[in-house]
Fold each of these.
Amino acid sequence: MKNIIVGQYVPGKSFLYKMDPRSKILALGILMVSAFVFKDITHIIYMLFGVLLILKIGGIPIMRIARGLRPIMILLLFTFSFQVMFIKTGDVVLETVLTLTYINLGLMVLIILGWYFTRTYIKSRFLFLIFVILGILTMLSLFTPGITISSSNFVVYEDGLLGASFIMVRLIIIVTLSTILTLTTKPTDLNLGLEKILRPLNIVKINSEEIALIISIALRYIPTLLDEANKIMLAQASRGVDFSEGKIKDKVMQIISLLVPMFIISFKRSDDLANAMEARSFIPGNPRSRIHILAWENRDTIVIIFCIVVLISTIAVRVFL
Amino acid sequence: MAIKFEQVNYLYPSFDGSNFSALENIDLEISEKGEFITLIGETGSGKSTLVQHMNALLRPATGSVTIYGIKIQKNTNKNKKIKLNPLRQKVGLVFQFPEYQLFEETVLKDIIFGPKNFGVKEDVAIERAKEVIKLVGLTEEYLERSPFNLSGGEKKRVSIAGILAMEPDILVLDEPTSGLDPKGRDALLELFTEIHKKLDKTVIIITHDMNTVYKYATRVLVMHDSELVFDGNASELFKSENIVKWNLDLPDIIEITNQLEKKLDISFNTKPHNVDELFKLMKGVL
């Protein structure tokens, strides 16, 4: 649970922390649009370097972001392999025949079993898995003695490889940018910024203040609910629920024993919260005063101008190159 | 020794990288039979963390906890060969808030949930449920009710019944009497003494009520600032000067006796445990 980094504020002192949340949200929006405007792999890699530069200047350790990327690794891997497999234009980079014979089928099973039993001892399991998959593919293409069961062509095209890398880099950029925002902005500030930015929606009768409040309460309760979930797990473990093992049938029971108290407690909490807010005379829709007033400073203007310049140049690159 | 703590430290990690130390150098031995232990100390002193080590829910950061011959250390869980689950049947832990464990449709199903997890047959478990529901002061009609439509005190009793039905050797209760009315509280404490005396089991109770400590405990543990600062019997504890330092107070009966001694300028040789004893002492002096 410590890997959940998206939506988590970590205190710091760099300029990213001093910026107004409004300008940060705006900048994030503009930069994301720029990331989508690019069409070429080289350009987007330049942008990735730009993002790394922001991290460097902002004093955010890259390892921290990398840890935050771990949950979307699977997604990245999927998009990558699908792109590689299904884009069939451009030059052929690699063409090989994957042959499945009785001998290497047996070897494959052995390798998979080996992986299954050794994986708990390997530190970076994900890399290990990728390594094993690549190893099996190599074996299927190169080591093919014995009677063939089936064989198929495996062709990798240049466009597929480029497209896959392109989409991966773009995803990484987007996730990194949004992680920067949530890492450097307190949830309360973020919320206040969102509220101000969504203000124009009031014209179409959407109350930005309420939306902001809903978001802030949701964010506020994530750690609380995680904490509660942990306590429930301990309480149920005391009654013999073994969350680490068990058959499928037991697993269902385990999850129910966790979810039902979780629901009850969240409902109770929200009820308590509503009462506490009412006791402090909160009335939805009524104007409220604020402790924190956002201050827009020169650095915010500079950052926004910079972002707009980036956007314009990306559009220029897209149109003219 | 059923449970043995050796130089146990425990740290709660916090987000900024620093750690909050919840237990510091705890050395403690608890025998399987015949102890009625109360664990006291101010809030945040590490009482709950300590009891969660007793059935291997938490693993010490350094040091070791030995429970029924199984040694629990920092990385015990990594090694799947050691089964921690059976320990939780032997050391039954009742949490402070019943909301964390009640989840079934009926009280009966909730009570037999624990025993079934430990491999007890359903009909045996149901028989046990019928027994324990009466032990905790409810009637059999409650078995068919939903645990969520009960009052706070009733939920508490059902959660205790859920652990009792597992027939643990050692019963650990985290503030079992909070939120109960005086009558219900006394009834439950009587139940625990009965379990302690009749079945000769060890009972460990976390409490803030000094009267409970003085009246029932054969042994008192005091936690203060993550450390175990006192381990002995109640009379000794309440003679100690450190009571104020540890943010504890005196039981009512001792308070009264002290006041009497001061106001009447007399002194008794012993401290009374209840009103009758005080009365006898008074008679002796007058």
Amino acid sequence: MSHNLSDFVAQSVQTLPEALRLLAEPADPSLGPWRPLAGGTDLMVTLAAGTLPAGRYVDIWPLDELRGITVTDQAIELGALTTYTEIRQHAQLMTEFPLLGLAAKETGAIAIQNRGTIGGNIANASPAADTPPALLAYDAELELTSLSGVRTVAYSQFHSGYKQMDRRPGELITKVRLRRPPSDAPGRTVHYYRKVGTRAAQAISKVCLAAFARIDGARLLNIRLGLGSVAPTPLRCTRTESVLLSGPLDEALIRRAEATLAYECSPIDDVRSTSAYRRRVTLNLLRELLQQCRSDRRE
Amino acid sequence: MKQPHELREASVIGTSPPRKEGVAKVTGKAVYIDDLPVAGALYGVTVRSRVARGHLRGITYHPGVPWEDFHVVTAADIPGENTIALLEKDQPCLADQRINHPEEAVVLLAHPDRELCERARRLCELHIEPLPTVFDLDESLDGEVRVWGDDNILKQFSIDKGNVAEALATAPIIVEGDYATGAQEQLYIEPQGMVALASPKHGITVWGSLQCPYYVHKALATLFGFPKERVRIIQCETGGGFGGKEEYPSMLAAHAALLAWKARRPVKMIYDRHEDMLATTKRHPSRTRIRSGHDESGKLLALDIDFRLDGGAYMTLSPVVLSRGGLHASGPYHCDHVRIRARAAATNHPPHGAFRGFGAPQSVFAIERHLDKVAAQLGIDGAELRRRNFLAPGQTMATGQVVRDEIDLPELLDRALTMSDYARKRTEFARLNAESASRGTPIRKGIGLASFMHGAGFTGSGERYLASVVAVDATPQGTVRIRASSTEIGQGKDTVFTQIAQDVLGLPSHMIEVVRPDTAEVPDSGPTVASRTVMVVGKLVQSACQELRRKLSEGGLLGESYTPTEFASACDIFHQLGGVLRVESQYQQPTGIEWDDKTYKGDAYATYAWAVYVAEVTVDLTTYETRVDRFWALQDAGKIIHPVMAAGQIEGGVAQGIGFALYEKVVWKEGRMQNAQMTNYIMPTSLDVPDILVEFDDRATRLGTPAAHGPRGAKGIGELPLDGSAPAVASAVQHATGVLCGAVPMTPEDLMQALEAAR
């Protein structure tokens, strides 16, 4: 035990407006602003390690209005407090956006999956988180709510630097929206997710690639690449995507894409892995994905 | 009425009764140290150096907590000698002037409020003037920066047989190689913890999670300058040890006792996982250089081994770890000309210590990897190369010890090869891998093996010096109580001792009680280490029970055969007649065992367990991850007392060995572990561990001549599986990828680097 609980203030709220009012309060000179506490699966770890900054925490776990998965004609919407377990159990979500389910399955242990939330995973802003690559591959949108209203942000624009994000003071992530593609969208779809964490469970990723692609014959019609653990933020690889859309998917194009991706990611050495390994494996995963795209074509 | 021969036929030896200690554990009733309710206890915390080497110039207690309410202990408060007495007295209990590693304890703080303790710990500043450091084993041996004694050498010896220089000069083929193994954390489930009571009137009493009550006892008696009877050590239920609770508990017990002594109140100290990983001992990192000479058939003509261990900042048990490592360094192979040079060097890492296998996993890894290198160089299959070099009964080992075990290693090898379908897979995988390589697909498969042995009991004359004692008594109700300091640490000691007693006395399990280790209640049967509990202490349990039975029958109270009720009434009458129904049995070195500590010649161990392990792996070149798909563990460890628990020991050891081989890497920076969390120190999960096929052979018993040193022919098995698992996995990785895999852990990062270097 390395923490001192008396350094912390935590308050539970029962309604969203109540939460928003606290979040809108000016920062306390000694304790700082209120910070949201959802499932707590990361905050409790940093608390135990003694690295959680002292301060004021608003416990939003009781807010049922932020829970649940809604399906409309245009989108599937996840309340920010939707847990990994709820994601895994939602049949339609798993069919239409399987990468999210794969990511949820790879996250922590069952107990963590029962408690950890999609909104918390996003706001915690770890570059090694398991769901952000999947959200990037599906070009998810976030809904942020404050006392002054509701704002929508493309998830690919949300993270701006290590633990930096487009969340304004007083705002709470309330919803994650996945746009459902039209049923007559052309081409064959490929959903790819691979987390590299060395052990088969309970791992923090060293590299994670999620991708969604549409392919028609020898050409990619659309591709979105989301990478984890190889940059200060979860990374949408738009330059590599542009290269891949620029011509037929042949060996020459794959090589150009690899070169671009090597440039686009910026992995580091840390206690979990090395920069060289992360870069090499990132490219290997890209190749595996693209070979999957090509072999699907041959079938 | 049962006849004696019927008793024998009905023996529980070799059956697997439910674990005696199991119900309390699975129902949550077992009391571990942090469960122990202690009225009025203070919490104790440790202020550590955080600097790897330096002079301690001062301590500042910054404002922010009510310091007047704290009990503060430094080296100046120690009543006796400031040392953790073990082999040498070089390690202080609390650093005084010199700091030698970054987790050195300097100040102890106690307060009723656990959180306030934590705040105070952060407000206690140590002023340390840094000194030059050494973290690399070979730099330490170069001796440029002296961090211990005159030359940084904690222990060195050499084992010499024949004339290596001459044999190497004339051998037609010479193969050289360098091998290395990393530090490994024991990761017992329960972190270390102690509760201490101390008063001038009653002396010191400590409860704790520990393997060796009398080690702690000796350390505290020295620290306080007390006579033995004023120190009492009681083992609580212990959630695993693997050697990690062999020497470090003496340190933690000393800290808790010093705080309790100063505060005159009970003190509880419990490490969290982070502190436990940072501060307690780990497996010694090793480097080994081997030069061997062969004829064209691969036969070993000369073996020159240079074996080095990083001992960390203090001696602790390094000399003994080095001995066991050196004594296993030439493996189960015959060679007329052997030189083994062994050195343990001091560095500014926290002291490395005991870990299941105790030096042998390090040296066995090196010789096994070397043989695969020889095999590749000569174009001989690794299994065949080993067969050509196996030791046979009557031949001599490196120390000159004549193999007297009833052992047939080629037969053991054949069985392992058949079990695993080795020959077919060896060819098949090679073909598949070639195909995959030409198609550019990433999957490679490999199968590999290791053959090895592990000496049971203490090294050399260790058992003679220990002179362990087991006592057995019986109550008037006929309950037989086994008194030994051997601890139950998850391995099932209470169950096995009960079986051994039942075998002699013919009583049901519930009439046998295994007394909890408490130095006020049990004699010193030695530490619970070195694969010695069943073989050495179990033999004493057996002989003490035989003596008890003799005592009752000599008085005519017990016939040749009897029922449990008759046994109970015999005990009752004996007590009524005023007799003391208590016997002791003390270890006697068997005749014919000779060992010379100075020359490292003679019988290093009374007997050995022998094994062949085979691993099958898949390597994915997309991620360079290795997965162990199947594992076969075949061993001859004499008579197996409890087959289910024994198989459990092997499976657990193999899993730990797989971790040692592929996953578990301590990341060091300036002597501190950087990944001291289970999220970043990657231990394999159940999903990463394959099906493990465990088989036991007992050739000696099969031939009607059970091994002599343990009860009913039992030997030791606790450490054995750690020795051969990593080299078997590495051998399979070599088969899959062509990379020699001479260093473990072989993480995906390392394998990628090796493959790129080979290109």
